[in-house]
Amino acid sequence: MRKIQSALSTASAEFRRNEAHNRALVEAFREKQDKARHARPQRDLDRLAIQGKMRPRERVEKLLDPGTPFLELSSLAANMAYGGESPSASSIVGIGIVSGREVIVRADDSTVKGGAWYPLTTKKGVRALDIAIENRLPVVHLCDSAGGFLPLQSELFPDKYMGGRLFRNQSILSKMGVKQLSLVFGHCTAGGAYIPSLSDYNVIVRGTGAVFLGGPPLVRAATGEISTVEELGGADMHTTVSGTCDYAAANEDEAILIGREIVSNWDRPAKWAAQRDAPEPPAYDPTELYGILPDDVKKQFDMREIIARIVDGSRFHEYQPNYGTTLVCGYANIWGFKVGILANNGVLFNDSSLKGAHFIELCDQNNTPLVFLQNITGYMVGREYERRGISKDGAKMIMAQSCARVPKFTVMCNGSFGAGNYGMCGRAFDARLLFAWPNHQIGVMGGDQAANTLVEVKANQMRRAGEPLDQATLERVRAETLAAYQEQTSAYYSTSEVWDDGVIDPVDTRNALGVAISVSLNAPLGEKGYGVFRF
Amino acid sequence: MTNAPPAPLFRKVLVANRGEIAVRVMRTLREMSIDSLAIHHRVEARSAHVRFADEAREVHGETPVVAHLDADQIIAVARACGADAIHPGYGFLSENAGFARKAKAAGLVFIGPDADTIDLMGDKISARDFAAAHGVPVAPSVQAKGDIEAFISEAGGIGFPLLIKAAAGGGGKGMSIVRDASELRERARLASGEALRYFGDGRIYAETYVERPRHIEVQVLGDGAGNAIHLHERECSVQRRFQKIIEEAPAAPLPDRVRADICAAAVRLAAASRYRNAGTVEFILGADGRFFFLEMNTRLQVEHPVTEMICGLDLVRAQIEIAAGRALPFTQANIPQRGHAIECRICAEDPDNNFTPATGSIRLLRAPAGPHIRFENALDEGQKVTADFDPMLAKLVVWGENRGQAIERMAAALGELTLLGLRTNIDYLSRILRTQAFRAGAIHTGFVTEQAGALAPAPPDRAARDHALILAALGQRNFRESIEIVEDPYASMGGWRN
Amino acid sequence: MALHLTLDGETHSIEIVQRRPVLRLKVDGRAYEIVGHDAGPTGSAIIGGETVAFARALVSDQRETCFVRLHGRTHEIRLIDPREETGAHDATRDEIHAPMPGAVISVHKAAGEAVARGETIVTIESMKLQTALTAPRDGHVLEVLKGAGEKFDKDELLARLAPEAEG
Q1: What strands, in cross-sheet order, belong to the sheet with B109-110?
Q2: ipTM summary value
Q3: Any idea which of A117-121, B438-442, C125-129 has the lowest mean pLDDT?
Q4: From the list C12, C47, C79, which residue is nearest B467 (CB)?
Q5: pLDDT band at residue C90 using 50, 70 and 90 as cut-offs
Q6: Which residues of B carry out catalysis?
Q7: What is this structure's pTM?
């Protein structure tokens, strides 16, 4: 593999303009993230302190091995929902190291409405357990939740991927031999009681931890029985009488220590033998990514410059460098792991689609994980391209990509529009993890195209009705469409809805992918096979 | 035939001791082709002196100390094993006249003085009277003869300060300094009580107390027929809790006339008592050059190696030769003397906490080495150090061309000595050697108290402390595992957060 | 989570910052790189660019103590057990409950008496089986609630140890 020769001029006006633009975007992102993580009403923090409880993030930090990374997922989930009442969707989810073992941590955030689950909390939780299933990643639940947020129960309880899915996933994980540990710091009420109960191991903190289907008020209302929290579901009752919990801890610190000891006894999943070399940092400075990404989503840039700032030694073996050039394909290493990279250098044509499909099959054959770096406006449209079968060539790429059994990872580097999102392993295509940069925009088409399209449709209606073209109406349609698009195509909207696994700072991409690839190797590769390619 | 080795002086010698002194005696026995017979209590069956000996036998007792003090049993073992002599070492039965008598009665040679000499010197009062009678200076003193009021009145007559001592005692027990008439009565009562408790003998006496006294002692050898020589003096002024921790030979600066007078007095005493074998005459020396007889130790001393180092001879060999009836190996005129030797007693104790004895296990032992360095020990890694025996673990002895060089060598050797697993006084000894006062020879028996400020450990500098903390952490298996357990890419990513 | 150690009465903390390509630790917030550390009792390591020869011995009695000898000076360092740091005092360790219903055969320790961990306090008989109930830790007996011949139920409190003094 050869080192990519960067053509970037860090002294250029364009670089500096881009850099200023993107640094401002990242700063705004960090502000939002910081707020979601830490800004809480003093009243809630005081209540926690009175109970002798740690903040959820402290619990996570104490759980993790010191000096090891934590890849937090969906830190801005729900950032545009519920009027901002549920920062990070009232939970912390991330991949980290406990007693040397990779685990996914799912922590209730009791600093927000007592840790009540909002609809997006369950969505984020279900996604966490899906990640656990797909990557055979043991789970540590840090439980402290008042239960479902009742005013929105219809959005979090009944459907397939709502609350019940958590417990279904827990059961499946256990069946697969993927361990789960619950540390019960606070209440686990109603459905929440099943989290520790369905965990293979659990620890409960004396005094503050409780597990019950119904708390004292509910029991009293239902049967008239008067009872205390301790009697109904306290640590001593569950560890000496009911056997629902395994270990009682005197306090949160001890619970975490016991939990770490439990994890230290777990066998380690045998990772499949992916090609690996000694890791090496990129030769080019990753902070130069800020100067490469354009200040306008419509501006083109060379994805090789991005690749050079993510991969080991900036080395890249490019596949078919002179064919289908709008899709850059090739091999590189990330944190030592060999990967095949597909990156968009323009709209997908027939040749670039065929090249992509072929490259995916090569990587699948070679047991090489796939990394998709998206900056795609779609597949080429027009008579000429339809006649050449752009749809069936795009379909080949989607077929190859959907059926490839090697782990896939997607980074939304810029735009992700139309069917290009599908071919490049969008959310629906089971990327093991999918990250977005703050400048990312997503939609079935770009805002301008959508506005133009709708204005054109409206004008046609007017023409058919024999009305004169009302420019004011048309301008209103354009403005409304653009405004809606601006909100709904943004990375923040996308991540709020958990359409990705989190917005990340571009310079964090290499580490995020390193963690993602490492955990993906826990799940054995499935059987090779594809559907029918349309030739 | 002329080259055939001479017949050994004894066939087999029972060494009635343990630890470093037992090993030290056995070394000489081996050089002299004499078999060594060790005794040991059950709990010390695997200790170094047992392994070192040609033969070993268990002696029984409720505690190891009881076993080592059981004269009848030890003599029975010696006879049963065919030993023809007993070397008592120091401590235990070494100054027990009854033991010496019983050994003799059993047909065994006791490598030491006559039982009568032991008796004479073993009682402080009779020893003192004997010394005074033979022109050896003694401190003015008064003995309590039942009537405590008379004692108090007479003692007051000597003048203050006074030192009250137990007649039968040693090791500081029953000892007390009285600076004022008003405290005399109470101190006398306490001293008598303590003497009764420790020695079963409540008799006490009072004598002139010498301020800033130095402890000077003289190594003597006698043939039992009235011939005696001295092997120069030793200075043992650096003491803690009335026990020596640093000894040297010759004494730190000492006027030649005083030196000659002290040595002559010691020889006079040895000759007059028809002393046989090796002994030590102890004196206290005042700043004014006056010295007084303290006591005579009728055995080999702990600190005998410093004399060996400056004289270039083996005192145990001399003891054995004298015991076998040979003439004294030297005349006074041909005893060599060269350079300066220092001994440090390595003790299991906490110098920063009033020298409280420490217990534990020796986990790591690395002895210093090099020219003119002796590390006298019988230690093993893994050995438990209990309160059963004296806290002295070992002795480090060095020789140098002069006192300064000996101090430098000792400082280096103490730095090199690694004995870990329990608290010891090694670093404390190093600190003593570094004081200006010690280097200047301004020592006296109150030295460590007087220098307490200079001897307190300075806090380590931050780098050294951090290094030590890091190495302690890395020495812990759990901590090392918590490092090794994490694999790449996480090991290289560190505490990254997104 | 940092490892805490005490030296000369002061508590210090050591954190692992990074493991590879070189080990980086922080001592009370000061960073050190450690290269070529020997795991044995004696050896050398390059700590913060300085080559340090050392000897050390770890003593694990009730507390873990490491004697580290550097530059001719021995440092006695106590390694604090993180479990101990949680301040979790398990009160149940002070109480001896009946593991099954039965009767006391004999009482071996009276209130106020010192007991070592593992020493029998009472012997009980239950289901034709004699069981010695032993002290869960070193300490003093606070009270023995049943005398010889007295019957008790499962989980009944039979004896209690005096609370441990701090330190």
Answers
A1: B55-58, B35-40, B12-15, B85-87, B109-110
A2: 0.94
A3: C125-129
A4: C47
A5: low
A6: 299
A7: 0.88
Q: Which residue of B has its CA nearest to A517?
A: B489
The alpha carbon of residue C140 and the mean position of all alpha carbons in its chain are separated, in whole angstroms, by 18
pLDDT over 90, % of chain A: 86
Residues B455-474, mean pLDDT to the nearest whole number: 95
The answer to whether A377 and A414 have CB atoms below 8 angstroms apart is no
Residue to mutate among C13, C19, C62, with most B CBs inside 10 A, is C19
Which pairing describes strands B35-40 and B55-58: parallel, antiparallel, or unpaired?
parallel
Map tokens 């405004």 to a residue: A483
Which two structure tokens, joined as six digits, stand for A330?
A: 């090739």
Kindly tell me if the per-residue pLDDT of B327 is higher than 60. yes
Q: Do C41 and B363 touch (CB under 8 A)?
A: yes
Give the pLDDT band of residue A434 (cuts 50, 70, 90).
very high
Q: Is the distance from CB of B429 to CB of B416 less than 8 angstroms? A: no
The DSSP call for residue A320 is S
Helix axes B19-31, B315-323, angle to 10 degrees: 70
Amino acid C91: pLDDT:
56
Nearest to B55 by CA among B13, B91, B85: B13
- Residue B172 — very low, low, confident or very high, per pLDDT cuts 50/70/90? low
B220 touches B279 (CB < 8 A): yes
- Mode of pairing for the β-strands spanning B392-400 and B340-347: antiparallel
Task: Give the long-range contacts of residues B310-314, CB within 8 A, separation 24 or more.
Answer: B310/B232, B310/B249, B310/B250, B310/B337, B310/B338, B310/B339, B310/B340, B310/B341, B310/B399, B311/B231, B311/B232, B311/B335, B311/B336, B311/B337, B312/B336, B312/B338, B313/B231, B314/B28, B314/B31
How far apart (Å, rounded) are the C-alpha atoms in residues A472 and A459? 11
pLDDT at C66 over 50: yes
Say if CB C136 and CB C96 are below 8 A apart: yes
Nearest-neighbour CA in chain B from A453: distance (Å): 39
- A335: nearest Cα among A512, A503, A70: A512
Chains in touch with B (3+ beta-carbon pairs under 8 Å) read A, C
Strands A408-417, A441-443: pairing is parallel
Contact between B51 and B343 under an 8 Å Cβ cutoff? The reply is: no
Residue B302 CA neighbour count, 13 Å, CB half: 23
